[in-house]
Amino acid sequence: MRPAAPQRFAVVGIPDNRRVAFFRRAVRAAGLPEARVVPWLDVLHGRARFLPGEIVRIDSPGEDPEVDLLLRGADDPARVEGTGRWYARFTQAVRAVAQAVETAGGTLLDDPADVAVLFDKRLCHERLESAGVAVPPSPTSGAAAPVVRGWDDVRAVLGRPCFRRVFVKLAHGSSASGVLAVEVAGGGRIRATTSVERAPDGRLFNSLRLRRYTGEAEIAAIVDALAPDGLHIERWLPKALQHGRAADLRVVVVAGRATHAVVRTSRSPLTNLHLGGLRGDLAEAGTAVRAAGRSWRDDVLGLAERAAALFPETLCVGVDLLPATGWRRFAVGEVNAFGDLLPGLTGLPGSGAEGLDTYAAQVAAALPPHHEEQPCTTQPLTAGPA
Predict the structure, then answer these.
(1) Distances from the Cα of 339 to the Cα of 89, 219, 228, 322, angstroms
(2) Distance separating alpha carbons of residues 58 and 208, to the nearest angstrom
(3) At what angle do helices 65-72 and 83-104 cross, to 10 degrees?
(4) How far is Cα 254 from Cα 173, in angstroms, rounded to an integer?
(5) 352 by DSSP, 3-state: which?
(6) Comparing C-alpha atoms, which of 285, 279, 256 is closest to residue 343?
(7) 111-152 pLDDT, tens per residue?
(8) pLDDT number for residue 383
(9) What is the pLDDT of residue 211?
(10) Tell me: the pLDDT tens digits for 2-27?
(11) What are phi and psi of 323, to 5 degrees?
(12) Contact 21, 39 (CB under 8 A)
């Protein structure tokens, strides 16, 4: 019998991006042929082609000015506006990739319907909540929820009981782009923490430095500029602390199993590592969870797996868990389609991904199982000793 041809991977991504480089390195480390790169520019220009039998991964279209221009229509990648247009064009492109892969007889690791929900925080929140997964309370959850038309709508939410502190998020944003942590301070004053920088002409830009706005008129101007792209509002839940810093967790789930986890800590409401957040101590977090009478396996990793299970046709997602004060309760903040960029992090003990980074774990999970031939028998098979 002729030996089976080695499995081949392709990745839709930005050719020089580190995400693509990490994935290709994982493929090589598995002893497989080099993963073929299908540039996002080829996808958006209708030039992408896929081969029979390929396993295809879709990676982020970010960090390329030309791709960003085609998706968002903005001439500066640092601009915040345009996410509504980005979402429409991105999801259309993902559907086109799926159709092309299916026509070629390949296998796609990312489901277009899942991706469409993952990149709409309102729809994702609704899916989680409907399945009984704990999430922050929100007045904008679901397709039937009222649309946020601008600051007046946000101001009205701030007047509700238990909503004096909220996160205002771009419905189709990522990496904390356009997120504002808004709170009502003493005397009814409004203040907001965000990475959004507002230029004198009113244009909005992403910044790697967090800003504190204390003037309601300026906060209102930012929200009004973002509202046409779609906004999602969530109650700002007080987070557990680690060494005096607010803490949350990113848990990567591959093929239904939590394989990697990292604690993120910050002195600000936003814990994203690129905004100055720091990796915390995972073992210490586990100790705190157990000291609070909770189970790390069931209440933390199990919660992430339950959230990921709502996107069963997508191989890998990154789940953001929000531990409440005292580490006694957890909620799911977001589920991320491209939440696996955690360089140098290896798999959790008992996860099956020990010694593997997030990309190597996905390569291993994507490969079809190898079944050894069993000797023929006429005896009935039993599950255990008679």
Answers:
(1) 21, 29, 26, 15
(2) 26
(3) 100
(4) 23
(5) coil
(6) 279
(7) 999 999 999 999 999 999 999 999 999 999 999 999 999 999
(8) 29
(9) 93
(10) 556 679 999 999 999 999 999 999 99
(11) -80, 130
(12) no
pTM (two decimals): 0.92
Amino acid letter, residue 59: D
Of 119, 247, 110, the C-alpha closest to 171 is 119
What is the predicted pLDDT for the residue at 384? 31
In which residue are the tokens 């073992």 written? 283
- Predicted confidence at residue 381, as pLDDT, reads 28
Start-to-end C-alpha separation, the chain: 37
Poorest-confidence range of 66-75, 158-167, 258-267? 66-75
**CA diameter of the chain:** 82
Structure tokens at 157: 């939410």
Which of 330, 272, 324, 326 has the alpha carbon at shortest distance from 297? 330
* Type of residue found at 98: A
The 10s digit of each residue's pLDDT in 33-47 is 999 999 999 999 999
Beta strands, E only, the chain: 9-13, 36-39, 55-58, 107-108, 165-170, 180-184, 190-198, 204-213, 231-235, 241-242, 245-254, 257-266, 278-279, 316-323, 330-336
Amino acid at 211: R
Helix residue spans in 47-120 (DSSP H)? 65-72, 83-104, 112-118
- How far apart, in whole angstroms, are the C-alpha atoms of residue 315 and residue 256? 8
